[in-house]
Amino acid sequence: MIRRFAGWRWLLFTCLLTFGGSLAATPSGSTSAPLQVLVADVWPWAYEDEQQELRGLLPDLFAELASISGQALNVRRLPHQRLLHDFERGQGDLSILFANPEVDRFAARSAPILSTRFMLVAPRDSAGELSLSALSGKTVAYIRGTFYGSAFEANQSIIKIPVHHLEQAVAMLQVGRLDALISSEQVLHYTLQEIGSPADDWRIELHAEEQMAYLYRHRENVPASRIEPLLAALEQLRASGELQRLMGAPSPR
């Protein structure tokens, strides 16, 4: 399925699109070199539309931050595992990621972006408790590279099945190739909405409360002072409610 997601306010700054899944945003009057921003190639956070243009929740957010702050940004979309690898090697300056102890080793949590909950999902007609302990010995899909909290990370009793997009995991559930999946509520909401599957068609149970995603800054690449305009722009969006509008989603549960 070709994914669609409405990008907006792209005309507020000059955009240069490349075939590498990147977007350079250079606001009028900006003279500093662009900061290198890495975003995960995960629907709906970041993806290419039918015209091969970079779209999604994170590109929309960085578009707003570039416009308000005047800071030039080069946003690059990568598979999640590649993003983590490149970010650690210093091939990116900023990224938005769920709190992750591995990323904390080389990057600073500069600002909270959104809080989410992680949900476990199973077919409506499945029986028994829907929890990690009850799923021992069963297959659970997850988006490769996402940190779902220490309990999921440490669990060795379930059979973890990595997928690139949640839509793939939902399709596998529908044909009985999985027992369950785990997802943030934002990704779950937009995926079910995209494929036209009502939340009532599924069993959805809370796995973990209040997982926070942060704007991470690579410590060696970028001094904290360099991103002060971006942080001020972020607080402006937060105060106006625009940040929640851009990044939030109603729970599908």
Question: Could you describe the 3D structure shown?
Answer:
With 253 residues, this protein is an alpha/beta fold. The N terminus is likely disordered. The protein is built from eight helices and twelve strands. Helix 1 packs across helix 7. The strands form two sheets. The chain has a ten-stranded mixed beta sheet with strand order 1-2-6-3-7-12-8-11-9-10, sandwiched between helices. Strands 4-5 form a two-stranded antiparallel ribbon. Helices cover 28% and strands 31% of the residues. The protein has two domains: 141 residues, D-Maltodextrin-Binding Protein, domain 2, CATH 3.40.190; 95 residues, 3-Layer(aba) Sandwich (D-Maltodextrin-Binding Protein, domain 2), CATH 3.40.190. The two termini are 24 Å apart. Belongs to the bacterial solute-binding protein 3 family. Keywords: Signal. It comes from Halopseudomonas salegens.
Brief rundown of the structure:
It is built from 8 helices and 12 strands.
Brief descriptors of the model:
single chain, 253 residues, alpha/beta, D-Maltodextrin-Binding Protein, domain 2, 10-stranded mixed β-sheet, 12 strands, globular, disordered N terminus
Give the helices and strands as they follow along the chain: EEEEEHEHEHEEHEHEHEHH
Q: How would you state the average pLDDT, rounded?
A: 86
Main sheet makeup: 10 strands, mixed
Beta-strand proportion:
25-35%
Count of distinct strands: 12
Count of helical regions:
8
Quickly give the CATH architecture of the largest domain. 3-Layer(aba) Sandwich
Provide the structure class.
alpha/beta
CATH topology of the largest domain: D-Maltodextrin-Binding Protein, domain 2
Total domains, how many?
Answer: 2
